[in-house]
Amino acid sequence: MHELRPRHAQRAAFVRQVQKQQREGFELAYLEAGGEVRSLAGYRIMEMLFSGRTLYVDDLITRAADRSCGFGGQLFDWVVQRARDLKCDAFTLDSGVQRFGAHRFYLSKRMNIESHHFMLQL
């Protein structure tokens, strides 16, 4: 997770934040190989007017050293199946505009670019 969110340098605060989100329905899934976590996904189920019951992926990361080894694809496919098993109507995520490799991956997984996400930092 540190590779995706390096600004969260304070481990204890980060763990507390994840635990708080888990009480609100956030779940973590990971793919392990050789005794090490290779890919990680954080997601939640939401009801949204535009998409219905939706599995929203907050975080999806594969360690830099493990990219192009199939770990991210396996975990992605597992989370999509989880959405189907939970009777979701949609599977969605946002991705930073600078993450070109991630965008190629999502497009290869047959995802569509449906909108722009805007944010006002407060």
Keywords:
Aminopeptidase, four-stranded mixed sheet, alpha+beta, 122 residues, 4 strands
Describe this structure in words.
- By secondary structure, the protein is α+β, with helices and mostly antiparallel strands.
- It has helices at residues 11-23, 71-85, 100-108; strands at residues 27-33, 36-48, 52-62, 90-93.
- It has one domain: 3-Layer(aba) Sandwich (Aminopeptidase).
- Strands 1-2-3-4 form a 4-stranded mixed sheet, with helices on one face.
- The chain is globular.
Detail the topology: elements first, then pairings.
Layout: H1 11-23, E1 27-33, E2 36-48, E3 52-62, H2 71-85, E4 90-93, H3 100-108
Parallel strand pairs: 3-4
Antiparallel strand pairs: 1-2, 2-3
Quick gist of this model?
With 122 residues, the protein is α+β, with helices and mostly antiparallel strands.
Strand content: 25-35%
User: What is the CATH topology descriptor?
Assistant: Aminopeptidase
Q: How far from one another are the termini?
A: 24 Å
Helix tally equals 3
Q: Spell the H/E element sequence.
A: HEEEHEH
Radius of gyration: 15 Å
CATH superfamily: Gcn5-related N-acetyltransferase (GNAT)
Helix content: 25-40%
Backbone structural class: alpha+beta
Instruction: Please name the CATH architecture.
Output: 3-Layer(aba) Sandwich
Major sheet: 4 strands, mixed
Task: Give the strand order of the largest sheet, numbering strands 1, 2, ... along the chain.
Answer: 1-2-3-4
Query: What ranges have pLDDT less than 50 throughout 5 or more consecutive residues?
Result: none
CATH class wording: Alpha Beta
Overall strand count: 4
The figure for the number of domains is 1
Shape: globular
State mean pLDDT (0 to 100 scale): 91
